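We modelled the chain as a single entity of 160 amino acids. Its sequence is:
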Amino acid sequence: MRNTILYVEKQEQTTYTLDTCVIRKILENPNYLDCISTHVNFSDSKILLSKTVLWEIKNQIQLIDPELTLEQILNKLQDKLHTNVKIVAHSNDTILLANDLLSKYSLSLHEPDNQILAFSIIHNATLLSCDSKLISCAKSEGHSCLNTHYLATTVWGAIA
């Protein structure tokens, strides 16, 4: 019997964007980010959050933890990711691309996911998501996207 060592190559990227579902999972389960971090190296990277993601999180705070504020959530993300989280407004290019994506993928992409994908593309950032339809659209666009569900629940992880 041979001993086999499993090597998991970390994905290196300087800029990431997060889908709302990933932020929720990180806040609801501290182990979720630990599992993702075995595949993704967040050191020397930056996290950009769109106003859309902030709006979605703000509307879901009561479901996550009624005592949390948006500022506390951002602080928790920065502490857990060990990197700066920057809030960025949508540019005109992001809005135009979001509308194009919505038309192109009308059967599988809906608002506000079209805005989240457009934001990630415009900022040339790897999107972290666990939304299979959003991941599929990102893949169809040839955009870098990591399926955090696979990263957190499988040994190998998966790049969408």
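As a brief sanity check on the tokenised model: Confidence is low (pLDDT under 50) at residues 1-13, 156-160. The first strand starts at residue 11 and ends at 12.
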